[in-house]
Design goal:
heterodimer, A: 113 residues, alpha/beta, Udp-n-acetylmuramoylalanyl-d-glutamate--2,6- Diaminopimelate Ligase, Chain: A, domain 1, B: alpha+beta, Heat Shock Protein 90, 5-stranded antiparallel sheet, 5 strands, globular, binds adenosine-5'-diphosphate, binds magnesium ion
């Protein structure tokens, strides 16, 4: 499934890196602990988190994350968006909780395969 | 090992303590370099995790440091040296879950106590030396 389909289905707000919407999603990982994401996320995953600071861009870029979804209506810091634009990392926001977001993505990905 | 010359490649990046807006830049540059060199993705993945965690530790705990890398035909060697408080009990620091990260770093999602164990797991050879009040040196070797 392409990231843009996910954006449509979940009505996500794309905040940076819209040229990455063409990319394919391999699955997802939800965590707010950055070392955990460094270890367990897989290339092509979407990453669901409530962290909003610039280090999420570095983690996403290091791990070839397809997109970062910031939950519960939290606003990414300005510096985060600047970095994300420069590094071509797709950041999206949603008012939904991690639980709701992950539940929906899980259902969509399993329907597809 | 495609498209690599026999010439050893080396380079370095300066790291500055507390500079969180720059965190990951050294590791990201090294990752790009390794990818461009055509190294195997699994090697790049392991090197990325290990260097990023080491870089973050310098930024959280130390005043300043260096990340140096040396690439030969069969090894990637990464040395991270800092001027910082040092580690009193290395055995304890190596335990998964042990962390003295300050509250502000925890709020950012660091401080899970997984950094040093992950550096060790992702390298073929791992060495850490530390002198309290002087600094810490981590050396990691990944076989290519
Ligand atoms: N470069 C360093 N200088 C001083 N102390 C360090 C350094 N690296 C690690 N430590 C100590 O070792 C502990 C464990 O480190 P680590 O496994 O990376 O976990 P974390 O950074 O999440 O606490 C740290 O909390 C800190 O007390
Ligand atoms: Mg650490």
């Amino acid at each position: 499934m392409k990231l843009e389909e996910l954006v449509k289905e979940l009505s996500l707000d794309v905040r940076s890196g819209s040229n990455g919407l063409e990319k394919e999603i391999t699955g997802g990982y939800a965590s707010d602990l950055l070392s955990d994401v460094m270890t367990r996320s897989q290339p092509g995953n979407v990453w669901i988190t409530l962290q909003t600071h610039p280090n999420i861009v570095a983690v996403a870029s290091m791990k070839d994350i397809t997109g970062v979804i910031i939950v519960v209506g939290r606003e990414p810091q300005e510096e985060t968006l600047n970095k994300a634009i420069a590094e071509n990392v797709t950041i999206m926001t949603t008012p939904m909780t991690t639980f709701e977001t992950v539940g929906k993505i899980y259902e969509l990905l399993n329907k597809k395969t | 090992m495609s498209a690599r010359s026999n010439v050893p490649i080396e380079g370095s990046f300066q790291l500055i303590g507390g500079k969180f807006d720059k965190a990951g830049e050294a590791s990201t540059s090294l990752k790009k370099k390794l990818t461009e060199m055509g190294l195997n993705v699994e090697i790049v993945r392991r090197a990325s995790i290990a260097t990023f965690e080491a870089e973050i530790n310098v930024i959280i705990y130390a005043a300043a440091g260096w990340l140096r890398y040396y690439i030969t035909d069969d090894t990637l060697r990464i040395v991270i040296e800092d001027m910082g408080p040092g580690i009193e009990n290395i055995e304890l620091a190596m335990q998964e879950g042990y962390s003295t990260a300050p509250e502000w770093a925890r709020a950012m999602g660091w401080g899970a106590g997984m950094g040093l164990p992950n550096m060790k797991k992702n390298s073929d050879k791992f060495k850490i030396d530390s002198v309290v009040g002087e600094g810490t040196t981590v050396e990691m070797i990944i076989n290519l």
